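User: Sequence for Efflux RND transporter periplasmic adaptor subunit below. Tokens please.
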Amino acid sequence: MNTQRLLTALALVAGMALGATWYSSGERWSAHAEAPAAASADRTPLYFRDPSGAPLWSAGPKKDARGQDFLPVYDDEQAAPEPAKPQQQADSSRKILYYRNPMGLPDTSPVPKKDPMGMNYVPVYEGDDVDDGTVKLSPGKIQRTGVKSEPVERRAVRVSVKAPGTIQLDERRVSVIAMRAESFVQKIADVTTGTRVKAGQPLMQIYSSAVASAAAEYLATITSKTVGGVEMYGRGSRQRLTNLDVPEQVIAEMEKSHVAPVTVQWSAPRDGIVLERNAIEGMRANPGDVLFRIADTSVVWALVDVAERDLGNIAVGQPVTVRARSFAGRTFAGKIAVIYPQVNRDTRTVRVRIELANPDAALLPDMYVDADIDTADATPVLAVPDSSVLDTGSRQAVLVDKGEGRFEPREVKLGRRGGGYVEVRDGLAAGEAVVTSANFLIDAESNLKAALKGFAEAGPSQPEAPSNSGMGEHK
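Assistant: Structure tokens for Efflux RND transporter periplasmic adaptor subunit:
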């Protein structure tokens, strides 16, 4: 009996060693099935994954759509490294400093590991993380991201200030015809509002008792003679006619003919356009009544509103190009004549006067125009393209291309902007190359490497707290 029991025990041991299955009393027992089950009963799964390998996870036991149980994942399975890939074997000659999170999270590990998604941590080799403040990119990444560089050169920065405005008449080229004594309009020439007139062209005939009396007195004075035969021209009588605004050619005709006219002909005082005609034949004109208003439009003003922030860039005498919205493709050249000493509190703009030649009278009063003020300085300055500047608001920086895939972030001080370039007053030297394209991607790479390096340096001095998320390091 003892011999039988001994043989049964030996067969059981041999069956367990060979992976055999033993049946007893209708029950099935497997050596490989019981051992893991017993070991798993003593451990707590980190999570449960989909049995088909799909990217689905669960914090507790769960079944998929086909009724299969989700598989438990334990801590030792999460930390098990995958076999080395060909790329890792190719880099085996280089020293690995640490492993960083493949999703860019601030998490590093001194040994290979996986994240909760099953992705391998990325190795960081010696030489990829240097302390000279530069960022190193591989040639492939530079080509994929489209990194472009351009040398820093000296050039004239063209700063153009644009401002809207309207056309206005030159205040110094407007004349009015008004009577200085009670008068009557006898006759009016064929002149209406909008008619272009020449200086000296007849406008109307006026009868005034005050003018007739002064003319008779002046004639009587110039025709009288003294005992010595010297004529008394009566400067006082002539001045009275001048004070009544009698045209100079009328007075000269009286001195020549010695005849006082009944009516006086009034003429246009200047070349221009009749802006206003209030005279009517037979009407009575009181002193001060404006009968005609004439403006010379050969020179007009463009009054534009310049933004307050651009006030420091403009000055009297700067050339201006004006474009009228009524004449597409045509420009008018002028210069800044006056900068008004007042800021509009509502629009935060400053009024600027630009004088424009208008020989063909194309520019009309109250016409909308757009002014382009050229504030360019002929002196070349160190300048870089606008796209090369990384501006955070409080500081400005550029990425200097050091060659061989290395890029150095450098803080700069900027000046004027214009024409797609910005002046660099400090931080760069002529001939250095700056990144003009994909610089934001390089800046993001620099920030990521700096953060990872900080975590890697802080890792040995600060022990990591236990975590059930699978993100912790494994010894």
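The chain has a mean pLDDT of 78.
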